[in-house]
Records
---
Amino acid sequence: SVKNMLNSGSTAFHISTLIRNSPALGPNNSPYFLNLPLDFACTNRLWTHNPGGTDPEGDSLHYTLINCQKAVNTSVDGYQSPSNFGGPLTQDPNTGLITWNTPQTVGIFNIAFLVEEYRNGQKIGEAIRDMAIFVEPCQNEPPVIEAITDTCVRGDITFAGGLRIDGRVEGNVQSKPESQGLLVLSEQGVVVAFLA
């Protein structure tokens, strides 16, 4: 069952789209989303989701997190923001990027957001999208990337340097001005070939 609402198994959900048709505005279609409304998050890890909102006519989109709804302007019973189960949940109003820093509770969480469509500063439509976030404990640790000294290589000189993985030099990389080389690594991150 969904953690951030009551009786999720028997609760209806509401999504909607509003399109303002006006000959003065020209053709208009609802915005659509390139990414599915389902995503997985790890406990104690920063989570982000880009819904991939796009508009066929190139209209501006503005995003706002809202409560999940069961009917027009009616929140589902007992709805709580996922922020109550971990760090803050936010959405960038211009890009739509949703960030949860960081979920603490294992389970399924629902969120909804309003996407308003603007053309020439005038609101011409909106859509409400509902999505599910599946929070699980994860065993996979993100990689640690060691900063290296910046190196600027001119096209008329030869460059040679070590490839660093987990703080160890694992191979030697050489590039000559005339080569269009390809570096080949094994699954363990070891340099196995440099193809010119």
---
Amino acid sequence: FSAALSALLSLSFPQLQPDSGALTVALIVQISQQLGNSTAPPVSVSSVQELSFASPSNVAVNALWFVSFVLSLVAALGAIIAQQSTLNYRETQEKHATTYPSSVQDQARMHALLYRNLERWRMINAPSYIASLVHASLFLFFVGLVIWLRDINITVFRATLAIVAIVGGIYLALSLMPCFHQPFPYSTPFTSIYLK
């Protein structure tokens, strides 16, 4: 996902920068009009300045995609940290069991202590938080994609918008259904927000 997103960012990011070719042409026309005392209306400074700014939709698309990209990278980092923490937890358990041969009760107490620390530091919720970041990243990407396609081709925009709307509706339904039907076999990371 991050690779596809960075490929699209490489296409959309240059649109944030001023079009130096159009800006140069406008300035040359203005200079030639001033030097030639032309009767044609001069190029206004505001029209030259407009050439140097990106359109609001380009800014919105890039903002959505960059935030999406950052969220996906944060999710990847969180997944790596969670995996490493899980490995450390297992190593601690195994090391304690082999280093300090003890009764089953002592091992159970150690396991309970480690588990309480997992709950205390909310490590149990880490996969849900990471999934929430990925889901938010995907939806920001979809919104940016729809906005971007609106300016490129209306037919592709409508087809993509329809698919994104259907998927978004299904996602919303899967998020809300556990609130009304217990037990419900499907949920999303955001279901817990609705259940509170």
